[in-house]
Every structure is written in C-alpha cells, then in structure tokens.
Amino acid sequence: FKHLQAQRERAERARRAMAATVLQAVWRARLTRRAYLDLLTAAVVLQTAWRAAAARGRYLAARRAAARREAAAAVAVQKNWRCTVARRAFRRQKLGALTLQRAWFKHLQAQSERAERARWATAAAVLQAAWRARLTR
C-alpha cells in the first residue's frame, strides 16, 4: 500500500511539475505574443499576423482533433485486441477443463467397470464353488 501511495505521490508531483511548466510556457508565449503585437503598428501587418494566428489555431485545433481521434481509435483497437486475447485464453482454459473432466470421468468409469467385473467374478466364483460343492455331495 505504501508503495502505491508513494507511486501516486510521485505521479502527482510529476503532473504538477508538468502543469507548472506548461503554465509557464503558456504565460511566456502570451507575454511574447503581446510584446510582438504591441510592436506592430500598421494595420496591414496586424491583419496579416491575425490571419496567420487564426490559421495556425485552426490547423492546431484540427491536428489536436485528429490526434484525439487517432488515440480513441488506438484505444478501441487495443480494447478489442485485449478482448480477443481474453476470449482465447478463456476458451483455452475451458477446453483444458473439459479435457480434464473427460479424462477424470473416463478414469472413474473404468474404475467402476473394473469393480463391477471383479464383483461379477467374485459372484461367479462363489456360485461355481457352491455348485461344485453340491456336485461332490
């Protein structure tokens, strides 16, 4: 339990460090962008920069959406594969159990048949002995 808790704490620290790094990067990018836009005075240059930023945002949004779709597809493929592997393993276990059950049933049947034959042989021997004893009298 302590191992899991320590692992969770490490993961949380790593996540927070990553979040802080991302926030710092976002903040620095924002400050840089604002300084750049402050330097631009001409309307034509502003329009060009705006259009480029908008196009870049659309491109990145489309790229992120494609990445999310690919990740979802990968998860679906992995889920289906794990399901297939689990079904195969279950089928193998079930067939193995059935094979063992059949073998055990055959063993019990053979044992029962041997006991029955021995009982009949004993009964026949008793009858034969009684018959022979009667014949000798």
UniProtKB/TrEMBL annotation:
<dbReference type="Pfam" id="PF00612">
    <property type="entry name" value="IQ"/>
</dbReference>
<protein>
    <submittedName>
        <fullName>Uncharacterized protein</fullName>
    </submittedName>
</protein>
<dbReference type="InterPro" id="IPR000048">
    <property type="entry name" value="IQ_motif_EF-hand-BS"/>
</dbReference>
